[in-house]
Design a protein that fits this description.
Elements: H1 2-23, H2 27-41, E1 45-50, E2 53-60, H3 63-74, E3 81-84, E4 87-88, H4 102-116, E5 122-127, E6 130-137, H5 142-150, E7 156-163
Length: 164
């Protein structure tokens, strides 16, 4: 009888061990749960789980996001500890300021004024705020060309136009 009781007790203990082990979440299940949480809490971060230890990797923009990822992983039931290998990447530098050449502004202004006046065949070059006009135009259009060139308020207008 003692042997039978001992055998039953051993079987009962083994069954309880199997049941307790079966109730413990698997690393694969924990990894999925952690990664599901990370997908919303810290996009760009992934976890690998081994032995209940979650190892986080990836990149985030700031320390707050890194801490948030760790807290999200720690919040999953069954995770024993978290190794946070997440890298904080600094934001990209701001774009360099666009430097506008004042001569380009004057040239664009003169070109626009000439186009609006219906004048073609005139080339305006600008250096140090001085406009130089070259090309061939009708004598009747000279006044419109000079007015268009002066509207941009250059330092000086140099007329090298050929009149027809």
């Amino acid at each position: 009888m003692k042997q039978r009781q001992s055998f039953l007790l051993t079987c009962l203990v083994m069954m309880m061990g199997v049941l307790l082990y079966a109730c413990k979440p698997s690393d694969a299940k924990l990894q999925k749960e952690v990664n599901d949480k990370l997908a919303t809490a810290a996009p760009g971060v992934i976890a690998e789980v081994k032995g209940g230890v979650a190892t986080l990797s990836g990149e985030v923009m700031d320390e707050a996001a890194k801490t948030g990822a760790e807290e999200a992983a720690q919040g999953v039931k069954g995770i024993k500890s978290v190794t946070n290998n997440v890298m904080v990447t600094p934001p990209p530098p701001p774009p360099a300021p666009v430097v506008i050449n004042p001569d380009d502004l004057v040239r664009n202004s003169v070109d626009s004024s000439l186009q609006a006046a219906g004048i073609s065949g005139v080339t305006a070059t600008v250096a140090n705020g001085e406009v130089t006009l070259t090309g061939t135009i009708k004598k009747a259009d000279l006044k419109k060309v000079m007015q268009a060139a002066n509207e941009s308020k250059p330092k000086k207008v140099v007329n090298k136009l050929t009149l027809q």
